[in-house]
Design a protein that fits this description.
By secondary structure, this protein is α/β, with parallel strands linked by helices. Helix content is 30%, strand content 25%. The protein folds into two domains: 320 residues, Glycosidases (TIM Barrel), CATH 3.20.20; 136 residues, Alpha-Beta Complex (Toxin - Anthrax Protective Antigen, domain 1). Strands 2-3-4-5-6-7-8-9 form an eight-stranded parallel β-sheet, with helices on both faces.
Length: 509
């Protein structure tokens, strides 16, 4: 190279080097780069990857499809919060960076020896937040740090070693330990059922870090038996078809064994994730998990340190999400690193995700069979031809002093809803109708609530024994006399909390 060309190269590079030395590391890593895709194993075509649950909800299937498509292009941001304060660190991330993460991680396990009433209240707050988060355009993940069934809800009873012989009793049907396990799962299923009924798909990551020995379910040679039990209970018993099943080991470091020993198999997981701490994002952790995944999406289930999006985009581009663990967001990352991560073009924020959803190809509209046929009459006697016939997804209306529709008056109207209702459990159901004014409810041809009179916000109950997965005719009649107008129909059973009857339990006639 001649002297002139050497000088020309030197004068070109010197300003760039000088600028880079002035920038903090977190700014350097957010500079645009030419992305070189990592070499990955041949993947299963996205169209061939479907949820392992053949009855998975449309929302769950759509979310899985999105995650599959994302691999190699971008990475979803995520933030975990605790049972006691389900929005704390998600909001702190927003305050620190100006943006929300897409994936909001929640906790259903209790570890502070709370009372049953406190746990129920905290879990309900988690569910309420998760529904609101989904409605606001985010993705929901659920973790369950379960105390050893039959013990008090304390961290020591989660974070404990358990011998193989003692563990065996918990996965052996008929034992007291097994019954305690099932009781815990049934209790949590009630809350997950609220998410199902609200149309919220969930990244469900039970019994994570099973390849380490710090949880009672850890390093058990029959871990797959526990996985099968929870899947059967949640899907076949409780019909939680909104769950995407995330198998989530720890990174196989000095404290954890290899992934493969505890892997249930491709036919039993939707997503694979690894928990990675101490900024230990080794290439082998990524490549070994990717190999097991066989084309299914992979994520970083937990981390203390935010990964470098530039490096990951070049060498580990198939991670589709990462989730920072609770308070480690601020303990392990400085403010500039948080801002840089969230603003990087490779990182997907909630606003980015919402725009992605708008831009995704629309699916042809399909006429839904769910809901009830509502016939609205311009009098209080349900007489004559209805002024309006429509499909209502549920009976949960508070019109106050207004009318149900432009063609209906504010006062002196009535409604008849008809269709079928299908329960999840074979047991006694109690129906509660709250109305202003009159209400009548028939289930399977039996009149179980009859309060056809002027009344203000009164609740009436009626009970009937129903069989699971059996469709029963339902007819509800309501009239509004004068003033405020409202009507709500709820149900509950020993296995199901009281809730408004959801759309997916109702079908048109």
């Amino acid at each position: 190279m001649n002297t002139y060309r050497k000088y020309q190269l030197y004068t070109t590079l010197l300003p760039i080097i000088f600028i880079l030395t002035l920038l903090p590391w977190s700014e350097v890593r957010s500079l645009p780069v030419t992305r070189v895709m990592d070499t990955a194993p041949a993947a299963t075509p996205a169209a061939a990857v479907t949820p392992i649950n053949p009855s998975a909800s449309e929302e769950a299937a759509s979310l899985l499809s999105y995650l599959i498509d994302l691999g190699g292009k971008s990475m979803i941001s995520g933030q975990h919060d605790y049972l006691e304060s389900p929005d704390e660190f998600n909001n702190k991330l927003k305050n620190a960076s100006g943006q929300y993460a897409v994936l909001h991680g929640y906790e259903l396990g209790a570890i502070n020896n709370q009372s049953e009433a406190t746990i129920a209240r905290q879990r309900q707050a988690v569910i309420d937040s998760a529904i609101k988060w989904h409605q606001g355009g985010g993705i929901v993940a659920m973790t369950f740090h379960q105390n050893l069934p039959g013990t008090s809800p304390e961290w020591a009873n989660v974070h404990m070693s358990l011998s193989q012989d003692k563990f065996d009793a918990y996965v052996t049907p008929g034992t007291q330990q097994y019954k305690a396990l099932i009781a815990d799962l049934d209790e949590v299923a009630v809350y997950l059922g609220e998410l199902r009924d609200a149309g919220v798909p969930v990244l469900w990551r039970p019994y994570h870090e099973m390849n380490g020995n710090w949880f009672w379910w850890g390093q058990k040679d029959n871990f797959n038996r526990l996985w099968d039990i929870v899947y059967d209970r949640m899907v076949n018993k409780h019909k939680l078809n909104n769950l995407l099943w995330v198998w989530n080991p720890n990174a196989p470091n000095e404290w954890a064994e290899a992934y493969s020993k505890y892997y249930p198999g491709l036919d039993k997981v939707d997503i694979l994730a690894a928990d990675i701490y101490n900024d230990d994002f080794k290439q082998s952790y990524y490549e070994n998990l990717l190999k097991l995944a066989g084309g299914k999406p992979i994520g970083i289930g937990e981390s203390g340190e935010l990964p470098d999006p530039v490096i990951l985009s070049q060498t580990q581009s198939k991670w589709v999400y990462t989730m920072t663990w609770g308070k480690m967001l601020l303990e392990n990352n400085n403010l500039q690193e948080i801002k840089s991560f969230m603003s990087n073009k490779y990182t997907v924020s909630r606003e980015d995700y919402k725009q992605d959803m708008i831009a995704r190809p629309s699916v042809p509209a399909v006429t839904s069979p769910y809901g009830l046929k509502g016939e609205y009459f311009g009098n209080t006697e349900l007489s004559g031809a209805p002024l309006l016939t429509r499909t209502d997804s549920r009976i949960d209306f508070n019109w106050h002093g207004d009318s149900p529709a432009a063609t209906i008056g504010e006062d002196s109207f009535s409604v008849r809803w008809t269709g079928t209702i299908k329960p999840l459990y074979s047991e006694k159901y109690t129906f509660t109708a709250s109305s202003d004014d009159g209400i009548r409810v028939w289930i399977g041809g039996k009149l179980i609530i009859d309060s056809w009179k002027k009344q203000s916000g009164i609740s009436r109950e009626g009970s009937i024994v129903l069989s699971a997965a059996t469709a029963y005719d339902i007819k509800v009649e309501y009239f509004e006399n004068y003033g405020d107008a409202s009507v709500r129909l709820m149900w509950q059973s020993p296995s199901q909390k009281q809730a408004v009857i959801p759309r997916n339990a109702l079908m048109l006639p």
